[in-house]
Amino acid sequence: MFEWLSNNAVIQDIAILAKPAMFNIYFALASIPLGFPIAVALALGKNSKNYFVSNICRGYIYAFRGSPLFIQFFMFYSIALSMNRAYWKPWGIDDIVLHPLFLGPLVLVFNTSAYAAEIFYGSLRTVSKGETEAAKAVGMSQWQTFRSVTWPNMIRLAWPAYTNEVIFLFHSTAIVYFTLPVINEQKDLMNMAGELFERDYNIFLHFSVAALYFLAISVVIFFIAGLINSRLNRHLHNGNNVKIKFKPNYIR
Amino acid sequence: MIETLPHWFTSLIGEDWTAKLDYITNGKHLLWYASFRFTLIAAFGGAVLVVFFGLLGASLKQSRFWPFKAIGDLYTTIIRGVPDVLFFLFFPLAFEQTVEYFSAQSSCTADELAQTGVWPPCDAAQWYLTQNEYLILACVSFGIIYGAFAANVIHGAMSAVPKGQLEAAASYGFSPRQVYWRFQVRQMWVYALPGLSNVWMLLLKATSFLSLLQIADIVLWAERLGAPNYFARVGPIHPDWRWKYYLVLFLFYILMTMLSERFFEKLQARASRGMQLANS
Amino acid sequence: MKKILITAAIAASMFSATGYAETVRIGTEGAYAPWNFVDDSGKLAGYEIDLGNALCDAAGIKCEFVANEWDSIIPNLVAGNYDAIMAGMSITDERKQTIDFSEEYYPASPSLYAASAGASFDFDNLKGVKVGVQGATIQADYAKEQLGANNDILSYETADQSVADLVAGNIDVLLADGDFLKPVVDGSGGALGFVGPEVRIGGGVGIGMRKNDSDLQANMAKALEKLKADGTVDKLIKEYFENGPFYSN
């Protein structure tokens, strides 16, 4: 039984690719905590009545949603590189700034915050006027209205779409090492699957196992997001609460 | 290139700008500009196939015959659960190897077939692919990947077509197949358009992956042109200029996005003539 | 990843293919000056391009150059996308297991370390240094084996990328072929310099060909011998590397 397990090519690949998968998970995990608040800020900015703030946020979101992440990676790496001697080195942070484990999540944050901002902006616009007006009517301040009415509704409405965005973000981690240098053995799923492929040219095996990892982790993200979703909607007892499905609106 | 310009023009813009103009119109740059065709071909070729796979996927998903429905659901779920770039690399290689596998069965000896770690088993089974063939495979890859997204959009749009219209068609004596193709599919486009425009934006951005299939596309040339050069025979000596070239590509894609948005707005307005849509 | 991915990449946009059967196709990288590069006018140029054309003239065969990315250059030769490799490729025992080489057309030359001018390192005891290499090269193997334990090895897809990172200071030293680095260091206007010992790895540079391709191997051997004797090879080496003469008296 054990022998069969250790000799099975699929099992072997799953074992080899476990560590590389951690790099993809790391890239996603490192960019969500920063991407989320920036996205909320950008959404509020875009919705702001201040012409200047609103247009800056709008422009940022447009630019990052309107161009490929692949190009953004190339561009930010070469920009960061050209600023190295003038800024990062004198400040003593060059080892951090140019490290793929820092720069990778950073570019992902730029990217995902724009996509998530558009989602939050959309839900912000659909938070019903009636509710905010009711809040004002009972004498809530602007901040109170935001905190207890706008914010929870915005997150609740945006959650299914935001879940899809997180899964997209996780998938995007696949291209980090297409642009950044590989340091020692710090390889992600795509690096390692490619390396395995170069040994025996068995694309079906190695790429399928790598795909399996992406698929499995996507399902886990989905499951966790689903739990949060039912918590966000726990006050809706009429059975009409928004359920996340693993298929619809899977569009970025 | 620069020699063909009239003298008054070059003296008007000054020596500095003449030199710059000369530089960005040299042969290497012209190759870069020409390589934009690959991006556009991949985008438009991919788009046609996206519609094809989208319709196919949606038809499968809507099928009452459960194995078809299962295939349709599996197709859309798996493709969207996997990064686009992974499938984009996987498909052309897998396709090539599959073709080579079958030709190897007939053209290689048993000994050759038995060896591992070599592909293809013998030279005769080698399928030579040129850049153009890779471009076609890239289009098919895009078609399959984004076809899965389009299938969902189309599937949703199909059910948005008012049932009464289809029932009316059926009562006029059209067969179920006719009702499907002549009424449901035709009516569906209006509802699917916003979603399909989203899919087009995804596809457009994915065209930046072409260099991963070793197609000499805009990204590959941007890197070559921008890379620092210290050897006079290669061209003017310059430091790392890559970010400038990537910035151009960044702006190019944003421009393409803007143009696409305009186009889809116009199309939507045209398609919804005479229709009462809640959101239009 | 790209190993088996076939390409006529740059070549397809630069050359019109004139029937595969009678033309010998030579694979090169096109981004490794002065060996091979794409010049300002967008054409492949360099020592190997001139030499390859001279060899084909001498052998009486028609040739065309095909550009292919470095990391898939051997698999694509084996796969038959082209018939020979002239890409600054050192003759090594490891590579000889997969392909055959002609006699060298450039003598074995050491690999060198380049660094920012004025930097110095204790090469007997190198520790905590960021070493850059181009992936899938003899230098990459060497760095991983000899320096990998105590240093960070950064591997890049192309030689140009590694140079860019060296100039920008993202890596401390770059280990690469000396003849590739010389024009880089010379042209850097004093920003870069050589440090440390010469690293003697790999043999001379030769033409890589498929093991079963004995006709082409014989033709190329004869032509190379002729051009070495009549001074053509030395003349080209002088022109591109300011080095030599090596083969004629």
Question: Would you write up a description of this structure?
Answer:
The complex is a heterotrimer of chains A (252), B (280) and C (249). Chain A has 12 helices and 1 strand; from the N terminus they run H-H-H-H-H-H-H-H-H-H-E-H-H. Chain A has 252 residues and is mainly α. Chain A has one domain: Orthogonal Bundle (MetI-like fold), CATH 1.10.3720. In chain A, helix 2 (9-47) packs antiparallel against helix 3 and helix 9 (142-172) runs antiparallel to helix 12. Chain A starts with a helix and ends in a 20-residue tail after the last helix. The model of chain A has no long low-confidence stretch (mean pLDDT 91). Chain B is mainly α and 280 residues long. Chain B has a domain at 33-213: MetI-like fold. In chain B, 74% of the residues lie in helices and 0% in strands. In chain B, helix 4 packs across helix 7, helix 5 (84-107) crosses helix 7 (131-160) and helix 9 (176-206) packs antiparallel against helix 11 (242-271). The radius of gyration of chain B is 25 Å and the shape is flat. With 249 residues, chain C is an alpha/beta fold. Chain C folds into 2 domains: 9-108 and 203-241, Periplasmic binding protein-like II (D-Maltodextrin-Binding Protein, domain 2); 111-199, 3-Layer(aba) Sandwich (D-Maltodextrin-Binding Protein, domain 2), CATH 3.40.190.10. In chain C, the strands form 3 sheets. A 5-stranded mixed β-sheet of chain C has the order 5-1-6-13-7. Chain C has a 5-stranded mixed β-sheet with strand order 10-9-11-8-12, sandwiched between helices. The radius of gyration of chain C is 18 Å and the shape is globular. Chains in contact: A-B, A-C, B-C.
Give the amount of beta strand of chain A, in percent: under 5%
Give the beta-strand count of chain B.
0
Please give the domain count of chain A: 1
Secondary structure tally, helices of chain B = 11
| Global morphology of chain A | flat
CATH topology value of the domain at 33-213 in chain B: MetI-like fold
Poorly predicted sequence stretches spanning 5 or more consecutive residues of chain B = none
Keywords:
heterotrimer; B: 280 residues; mainly alpha; MetI-like fold; 11 helices; 74% helix; C: 249 residues; alpha/beta; D-Maltodextrin-Binding Protein, domain 2; 2 domains; 5-stranded mixed beta sheet; 9 helices; disordered N terminus
